[in-house]
Amino acid sequence: MTVSETHLVMHGLAIKKHATPEAIAGIVGLDVEDVRAALGKLVEAKRVVEARGKYLLTPAARMALDADYSWVYEGARANPHFVAGYEAFECLNGSLKQLITEWQTIDVRGQGVPNDHSDKGYDDKIIDRLGDLHERAETALRRLAQALPRFSIYRDKLSAALEKAEDGATEWISDAKIESYHTLWFELHEDLLRLMRRERQE
Amino acid sequence: MAICFGEWTIGLTGEGVPDRKLIGGKASSVARMQALGLNVPPAIVITTRACAAFIGGHTTPPGLEDEIAAGVAWLEERTGRRFGAGPRPLLVSVRSGAPVSMPGMMDTVLNLGINDETETALAKECGDAAFARNTHQRFLDLYAHIVLKAHPARPDQCGDPGTWRTAVHDATGLDIPYDAKAQLRGAVRAVFESWNSRRARRYRQHHGIPDDLGTAVTIQAMVFGNLDARSGTGVLFSRNPLTGDPTPYGEYLPRAQGEDVVSGKFTPEPLSALANELPEAHAALLVAAQTLERAGQDVQDIEFTIERGQLFFLQSRAAKLAPHAAIRVAVDLVREGLVDVDAALRRITPEQVMILLAPHISEQALHGAHSLASGEGASPGVGIGVLVSDSDEAERRAHSGEAVILARPTTSPDDLHGMIASRAVVTELGGSTSHAAVVGRALGLPCVVGCGKGALDGLAGRTVTVDGRTGKVYDGALTIEAPDESDHGSLTTLAGWAAARSPLRVLPPSSPEARGAVDLAENIAAADPATIGDALNLIKGARGARGGAIASDEGVRAALAAGLEFIVADPVLPPLLAALRSKAEAAAPSDANERP
Q: Residue B324 burial (CB < 10 Å; 0-12/13-18/19+)?
């Protein structure tokens, strides 16, 4: 069963929210022109609204999308590779959140204070651990991509964010306004939760 | 000098510190502590030369195995223990240590030398079978993860070692060695191989570090803080890391191993407990704290273990300080003659200054304040606005100029636009690692998480004040106070020192001379740090400037390039620090790459 482009565009919009056609195309692996065309049709059908060059799902479209998940990804949910990949990802999710928290907050005598990034040794150690975690995530992402090839996009984007951070551009770790490692990780998580029809814990 | 076991291996004796290029960072710090006369668990080092030979020849260099055996025998002699045998088994740790630290290198493996026989011997020696079992499991866990890179589901905590070994074998087809010497061989080889891991190679390439430098391997005897009532483990800060107060601060856990302190499972005792139980060790610790602080020229975070009354120093490094402490310590260390003014100024970051001067709720307003909800303070700062429970609504109302606070059961990437538009974020569920907390901190947004299910029901539409440090949500708009730089003794001192060295004068708005500055407030290019240089080109001939992004790092750089005499800013210290950094970078351009 192939997933329709319209569904993919709506799904990408549900994850990116308030997104440009380029951002949607980048996350679901479609051509930008195809995404533009699909968005045009969706706007006509009143499933999507445009505001300042960015697009947004209407509430009705969101409900329709949620209903679509039940059958569109039945195959993935029944695929042991995909489910194993998802479970491995969930296992790593806690470590990633802990790691990002340690990046942002240092523990001084049991009290969390903002990391002012004055200690390069501390920061380097965390980037190193992020690299370790990434290598484990790659294994999980490979299994996910075996069932749904578009998941390799996340692997490439996460690797790119990690390498930028390793090269010293540390905003690529958790800056919320760019496709930082943490931004991508959460979008990936959101993607998986929707496919698996699970609820976010926190 | 240190004792040599041949071409590749050195024993650290405390007489002199061998070349860091040869023994790497970890062993250097061991040798430095020894050189200060401190008692450190005995250690041997396989030098970077051996690693280079391994990488070049793709195999263990000839003679290395014999040298390691000789080194281990030397450790046995110094500890009175036997590696891989009872009645008093020697356990060791294995650490990688390149001359320059880099990512992708092998992490530390502890407790090598343990197997079923030595576990039994250790249980007998310390009278604690559970500890011996735990030590064994910890070894299996670390070896599987770090050396074999296997991540099998962990058998339950009381699972027997045989089950663990089988689980690792089933998951990877690889075996955790049973024999102590084979464990050591495997770990050493893994350190060598980590030199060529993907991340290490990338890092070297990016930073121009030669590929043939190699990493050293430090093999150190483990000491036990849980052998008897005169054993224990703890940490000591040479000054209080939260306040900067120059009194040593420490925690001690009698009859425990290092990881017990970190685990949080046990509540450590204050250092005074140690003063009562082992006054000699306590006194020696305090003296060592002074010695290490002087040698390191910074506040030290010291890990120690006491084994049967004998004090061992495991590690000493510059302590991580809360921003308040960092500012105070910088001034104190100069006054005490430990560092010079330039070094003290280099250690202060603009972020630390801004955190100190962050606005907070006034004491008086807090007194009569009514708390509507409370949770965990996850991102500090104060936000005031109307509570809104939907991200789209938050964005819409913020666009029309209203100050809003986003309140959600939890947040997800769906809420990012609402968070960006809000003055603070409050959630009902989740802790300090939740999405709201992580993103709130990334955005510099005050954030309170985990107020409890339903705790925010019915609050929408109310004006509230959120304190992201204490985790409180108060009714109404409380009075906010912003601390003044000039009221803060240490900041004033630092600003005075920085002003005397800065190539650019930075005046507070209250200075009479500040009126002569060109105001950039209306200039669009000047509002953006990336383009402020263009704005300054248009005011050639002006003596000073104010407004826009002039106080940012880029603004200061542009002001220097444009030949301005002064800028106007409040607070003055962050731009002064930026001016000093610019000056230092101009003097030594290669340093500019250090902290991009």
A: middle
Residue B261 confidence (pLDDT): 66
Residue among B147, B412, B434 with most chain A CBs within 10 A, to mutate? B412
Whether A70 shows a pLDDT value over 70: the answer reads yes
Same-domain pairing of B108 and B132: yes
Given the structure tokens 């930028």, which residue do they identify? A164
Chains A & B: contacts with CB separation below 8 Å: 127
Across-strand partners of B383? B466
Measured torsion, CA atoms of residues B487, B493, B496, B499, in degrees rounded to the nearest 10: -100
What's the gap between Cα A190 and its chain centre?
Answer: 6
Confidence of residue B227 (pLDDT cuts 50, 70, 90): confident
Number of domains comprising chain B = 5
- Determine contact: B595 vs chain A, CB below 8 A: yes
pLDDT of residue B347: 92
Final residue of a structural domain among B466, B481, B496: B481
Beta strands in B490-587 (DSSP E): 505-507, 518-519, 544-546, 566-568
Do B256 and B188 share a structural domain?
Answer: no
Q: What is the pLDDT of residue B351?
A: 84
Q: Reply yes or no on whether the pLDDT at B445 is more than 60.
A: yes
Q: Which residue has the tokens 């020849």?
A: B57
Quickly state the pLDDT bin for B263 (edges 50, 70, 90): low
Could you give the CA distance from residue A158 to residue A155 in angstroms, rounded to a whole number?
5
CB B379, CB A138: distance < 8 Å: no
pLDDT band at A3, cuts 50/70/90? low
Looking at residue B560, its pLDDT comes to 93
As beta bridge partners, residue B306 has: B232, B311
Coil, strand or helix at A163 = helix
The pLDDT mean for chain B works out to 91
Question: Does residue B521 sit within a domain?
Answer: yes
| CB within 8 Å: B326 and A118 | yes
ipTM for the assembly:
0.79
The CATH code belonging to domain A5-72 is: 1.10.10.10
Is residue B226 domain-resident? Answer: no
- Residue B11 corresponds to which tokens in the numbers above? 């024993």
Q: Do B442 and A113 touch (CB under 8 A)?
A: no
Domain that holds residue B303: 232-318
Asked if B358 reaches chain A (Cβ–Cβ under 8 Å), the answer is no
Residue A87 C-beta-side C-alpha neighbours within 13 Å? 8
